[in-house]
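User: Can you predict the 3D structure for this chain?
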Amino acid sequence: MRLGEGKKYVEKDWKRRAAYTLLGEPHVPGWIRLQHVLRSIGNLPLNGRPVKLLDAGCSRGDLLTYLAERHPRWSLVGLELEGDRIEMAESIRRRVNAQNVSYLRADICHLPFRNEFDVVICSDVMEHIPDDKAAFLNLTQALKPGGYLLITSPSVPQPRHLRSVAWREQRVGFEPSEYGHVRDGYSTDGLKTLFEEVGADPIEIRYTYGRWGTLSFDLFFSIGDNHPNPIVFAGVYPLLKTLAYMDLYNEPAHGAAVLGIAQKRINGNGAK
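Assistant: Here is the predicted structure, written as structure tokens:
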């Protein structure tokens, strides 16, 4: 099953259901983000062993559904605060018979886990959490000593975006506050500092959504975000995906998002 395809089982709109069936994840910016996460997981030195992984802020479980099929020996846990998303994720899990996945409704700032996971992922969630230090600390405490924490977030400062994005927001009456962000994001230095403060040693911190990824993001939002005209979307989609692939195979000096990986220290003496 392709990344994001499982949402066809809970989607009521036939046009979106067809898009999930034919394309997998049609939300190209979201696809870019998850591809960067998947590549980073693949680069971790997990040595082929069974892995216990937590996706904190899993939404409808796209990442876990994809990983479950490819790593049947892994134990995967999805955590989400929104009850309706947990219900959809669980419905998808049953439909695809992902027996190595479970879901839990919980707050990242109040996790019931200690020293349990080999990998913890929190993708584009921290910008929504007022007490991000508590969230970083809880995610780190959920890791086994030597485990890996992977975070993605919008970057600061943001690169310049196409004027058409702001034009569309004005046209449909959208306010950026509707994203629910409590901060603009993180700089690479800010992310490094947070990792270190909670007992995790940074391994890699890099930008994503460079020139090509940001252009794909901007064009996607300019044509309607989650509600594009189907004909316009079909015409522009090949360009969006081409730009998305270009983003995956470039390492930009700056970008619209940041991805960081850190390793939990062992006995307070640093990651090993």
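The chain has one domain: 5-264. The domain at 5-264 is CATH 3.40.50.150 (Rossmann fold).
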